[in-house]
Design a protein that fits this description.
The protein is an alpha+beta fold. It has a two-stranded antiparallel ribbon. Strands 3-4 form a two-stranded antiparallel sheet. Strand 1 and strand 2 form a beta hairpin.
């Protein structure tokens, strides 16, 4: 499998790529935070995490995931951040 990892552009930021028909839901279940996703949602998240990891970005770089932008209705918001 080959994965195209978008390069970071300081003027435009990191291009966030979503697979067609992705679905992602994030919920708090007691002491657990659960991310439920279809195949396309998991691939999308994996590509985004690889983009953060392999673009030599600064510590603290992050992507917000929210119901209004990319998560299914009723989802909890979360952030993926580079440390």
């Amino acid at each position: 499998m080959e994965i195209d990892i978008p390069e970071y552009d300081p003027a435009k930021g990191l291009k966030v790529v979503w697979e067609n028909n992705f679905k992602i839901r994030a919920i708090n279940k007691g002491d657990d935070f659960v991310i439920e996703a279809n195949k396309e949602g998991l691939v999308s998240l994996a590509k985004q995490m690889l983009s953060i990891a392999y673009n030599d970005l600064f510590s603290g770089f992050h992507i917000h995931y929210e119901e209004l932008t990319c998560l299914e209705k009723g989802s909890a918001s979360f952030v993926i951040e580079l440390k």
